[in-house]
């Protein structure tokens, strides 16, 4: 921008000299055209600088948004991993409970005892010394 400002000053000096020389043509002199061109170049440089600043600000905002999206994705993955672990543990516990209940029914059937009423406690099986089979997830 300093170069274009110096050019404007130089063109202004040339214009002043041409006015003192008494140019009376209706068409702009080369000096006037040079000054106009320098002014336009200066304005274009200012617009380009403003556009560059806006572009840099937009890039910074986009980078911040990308960081927020990346953090949200990371948080969502961690939450999904926790939910999967809880579901796996719950399913494992459910399987153990289901297997255990099934074992009691099988033990009651082995003793020849009739199934108990829905509200009554299940009949106790004699202790055979065998441990129940471990549950698999």
Can you walk me through this structure?
With 137 residues, the protein is mainly alpha-helical. The chain is built from two helices and no strands. The longest helix is centred in the middle third of the chain and has 81 residues. The chain is rod-shaped. The protein starts with a helix and ends in a 27-residue tail after the last helix. The model has no long low-confidence stretch (mean pLDDT 75).
- Please summarize the sheet with the most strands: none
Low-confidence stretches: none
Overall pLDDT metric: 75
State the end-to-end CA separation. 73 Å
Protein structure class: mainly alpha
Count every beta strand, where a strand is a DSSP E run of 2 or more residues. Answer: 0
Number of helices: 2
Helix content: over 70%
Order of helices and strands: HH
Name the features:
mainly alpha; 137 residues
What's the SSE blueprint?
Blueprint: H1 2-21, H2 30-110
Compact overview of the structure:
By secondary structure, the chain is an all-alpha fold. The protein has helices at residues 2-21, 30-110.
